[in-house]
Amino acid sequence: SMERYPSIIKDLISLARIWWIMLWNRFDIIQVSTPKSSFLGALAARLSFHQNVIYLIRGRPYELMTGLSRKLMNLCELVTCYLSKKVIPVSHEMGRVLINERLCSPQKISFIGSGSSTGVNLTRFTRSKENIAIGQCIREQLGIAPNDLVILFVGWLRKEKGINELVYAFRSLIQEYSNAHLLLLGDFELSDPIENEVHTLIEKNSYISRLSWMEDPTPV
Length: 220
Known about the structure:
The protein is α/β, with parallel strands linked by helices. It has seven helices and six strands. The strands form two sheets. A three-stranded parallel beta sheet has the order 1-2-3. A three-stranded parallel beta sheet has the order 4-5-6.
């Protein structure tokens, strides 16, 4: 288990548990991802004498941080890259940022194709009769007409992901297109909160709907 938000005591406990597992089990490759788990995982791997650590960077949630918090996150990123044998960003742009900010050696960085994380199963999202029927049921539950335009966002509802801009832009859009609807699939991120006005618009605007995080977002 691991806390999502920083917690020195709990993070040290998590590190000790990961280290203990890795110490008594030998792995050919250890792949880590997301900032905190990557830092703890890479550190535990080296402390348990594992060499082949692969760091997959999907994003940097601290991108908009400033001051001491940003310096601390950059330091964690630097250490994780140093402890990793290979670093795989999900885009060439992210790779350039890591190099330009001197967080990672260019020799360690490689890409999968044009940049990828886990790929997309196209069959899963094919417009089958079953998927269409489930989608129509969701529209009915949310009060969205069959022919209305639905704009979908999937992910954490936080400032860094541009939710403020998205909601304000949509508010302007519906003044011209009354058949448009915004559907947000995800939960609010308390560590990077959106503006109060945006939160109110999400809750009160009849053209905006929100569904909580779900294991399988395919029907939506």
